[in-house]
Amino acid sequence: MPVDQDWLDQVDEEVIDPALPICDPPHHLWDTAQSRYLLDDVLGDTGSGHNVRSTVFVECMAEYHVDGPDALRPVGETEFVESVAEASGDAKIAAGIVSYADLTLGAAVGDVLDAHREASPTRFRGIRHACGWDASDDVRNSHTKPPQHLYLDETFREGFAKLADRELVFDAWLYHPQISELASLARAFPGTTIVLDHVGGPLGIGPYAGKREEVFDTWRAGICELAACPNVVVKLGGLAMPINGFDWHKRERPPGSAELAMAIAPYVMLCIDEFGPERCMFESNFPVDKQSCSYRVLWNAFKRLAEGYSADEKAALFHDTAVRVYAL
Question: What is the CATH number of the domain that holds 269?
Fold first, then answer.
């Protein structure tokens, strides 16, 4: 996913409320032939004017071990991110690390979880096992190639059960037709904190293109069901990805924060209404969302959306919920 910095630089804005503390919960780190996003890139974004106090890294299949048992190869990513976190010093980049372990290993996944913790004793906080799946070839399924109905699978749930004993958080990445499956998982494991990534992935491409109202209705029903599970929190962001169908990345100029805020407001505001600020956290999802907007513009958009909330509510949305959930 190449990022065109010259294109992004066409739109620049003054930072809104620059003193407001932010914990950005999640970003990624990688270095591939197609894209690079490493410590200096993160620091360039987090240091662009907003008061980012800390960040959380979420898995993206970076720097896996190339040998050894397949199940343990993702531990290489934790080792890599741990080294980045150490190098970041007071910037507290990757103050929390959410890694990948194949929960379809069932009970045997416990050894993998313990290996992640050994690789990062003070920062490892949880696991993401994405389940984004759609029947259409126009919708790319999650990078871990999940089967349909992953979160309903009995063996997956045997592995999921190993998170609670270790007080680990579970990040969930899926598409909007699958939200009810996550609600089923949350009800089955009320003692495990579950974080819904990217407001539940409302799709706007392939068979969902041009059907924003229909998609919104399906998405809203799922969100309302999920919000009834007190162990679930939600990340407010990820809506500038191309899969959401806004197509900002195809324009001659990127959007400004006012346009972004207007477009994503229905999703963000419904989540805050249903979950409450204490169960919501704004997120950049960089560098994926950087295909559509700059870091400064994105957080300005979030601040526009939060304008009517109290100081305590803003603190929760921008910083405190993430810090509490990931025990930073």
Answer: 3.20.20.140
